[in-house]
Amino acid sequence: AQLVESGGGLVQPGGSLRLSCAVPRTISVLNHMAWYRQAPGKERVLVAAISSGGTTNYADPVKGRFTISRDNAKNTVYQQMNSLKPEDTAVYYCNAGQWGWPFRPSGSWGQGTQVTVSS
Q1: d(CA 115, CA 18)
Q2: 90: CB partners within 8 A, 6+ apart
Q3: Model pLDDT for residues 48-75, shown as the tens digit of each residue
Q4: Nearest of 17, 5, 8, 1 to residue 93 by alpha carbon
Q5: β-bridge pairing 4-6 and 56-58
Q6: Cβ-count burial of 62 within 10 angstroms (0-12 exposed, 13-18 middle, 19+ buried)?
Q7: How many CB atoms lie within 10 A of CB 16?
């Protein structure tokens, strides 16, 4: 079973999107979780992480604009993205892994969800 990301799309600069990550039951939703993104021609980078207890960390470029959260009852992790900028354009992925900063992903990568910020 794979992690399944959704919620991406085309949005204008300054707009908002909420991404969702459905966590299969073979991967405990109580794991530490994180969002990553990969822009065209660039490496995948860590964006935000949330511990099993709800502690959060964010990469500097998204601090104050992105919020990671989790709903354990729904086996889902979210990322609310506000004040989006063209440089946020990327494919976004979620993963489970080892808590720390940088977060260390341990699961298989899903298909990701494309976010495009453009006027």
Answers
A1: 10
A2: 37, 38, 39, 40, 42, 114, 115
A3: 999 988 999 999 999 999 999 999 889 9
A4: 5
A5: unpaired
A6: buried
A7: 11
Whether 29 contacts 78, CB under 8 Å: no
CB-based contact 54:48 (threshold 8 Å): no
Q: Which residues of 66-101 are buried (b: 16+ CB within 10 A; e: fewer)?
A: bbbebeeeebbbbbebeebeeebbbbbbbbbbebee
Angular region, 13: left φ>0, alpha ψ -120 to 50, beta rest: beta
Tokens of 87: 């440089």
